[in-house]
Write a structure and sequence with these properties.
2 domains; two-stranded parallel ribbon; 4 helices; single chain; FAD/NAD(P)-binding domain; about 35% helix; extended; three-stranded antiparallel sheet
Length: about 160
Amino acid sequence: TCSLCGQVMWNTAVHAEFIHDHADYGFETLGVKFNWRTIKEKRDAYVRRLNDIYETNVKKAHIDIIRGYGKFTADPEPTIEVDGKKYTAPHILIATGGRPAVPSDSEIPGASLGMTSDGFFDLEELPRRSVIVGAGYIAVEMVGILSTLGSKSSLLIRQDKVV
């Protein structure tokens, strides 16, 4: 999940909460509407711009970015092999990224109807209803953001035993 994307969406929800409370502070905010596509376009452009800046700064610092499937080798010096080419250095940083585990429909019937938290950032419009499955901070943030922006939202938490 893109942490910058999440922060932008969290800030969007905070603004929605402020607007909700404006009347309590004497502000009349009749007719305020939220446009999901606008924030999605602006968020995506912001993240692209920041990624470009980060990559430019890394290149200016004479740091090589090597993308591909890598593995450590048995060489005596610290060495990794990426797509058939070996790299040796005193310090090797591997930024693996992450991929969510998606169960099959045979494991959980209907699992293919869902999306991962990454899919949240691909949504072209705010869903009328949403169900978030999980108990981690990302799940709690997602349900809070979606609910605050107007999606009728539920949070499901799996528990193996009753406490």
